[in-house]
Design a protein that fits this description.
This protein is α+β, with helices and mostly antiparallel strands and 147 residues long. The chain has two domains: 62 residues, Arc Repressor Mutant, subunit A; 75 residues, Gyrase A, domain 2 (2-Layer Sandwich). It contains six helices and six strands, in the order αααββαββαββα.
Amino acid sequence: MKKQRQNKIIEIIERYEITTQDALKKRLGDEGIIVTQATLSRDINELDLRKELSSSGAYIYVRTQRSAVQCPPIFRDSVVNIDHALNTVVIKCHTGMAQAVCALLDKMDCLEIVGTIAGDDTIFALMRSESAACEFADLLKEMILLK
């Protein structure tokens, strides 16, 4: 339930200019998701949402990206190449390291990842859309300074 609610929050803030928690709570209600203010506040913190000035001049909720500083050394030391095709991100690792790197990806709890699968040296991350795959691949490259 929490994952579905948080996915819906991301969907709403990407579709509409949401300026307040009350507006977000109302949109969630319109989608059939009833939440308390406390739950919504926790979700906003967990999703790392921030307010930024929009082109219309209003402060709206947006998603923030993780910085390269948060990249675990095992990830940076194990990944050899990152690419994407359609809605799949392919991560090549040193032999025997894909499982460990995949576990780190799973712990990221990224809402755009549908699922991951790891072999010995390759990881496939199925994303919700082609644009999500492109953005995620770029983010991972920035994290390990491949870009």
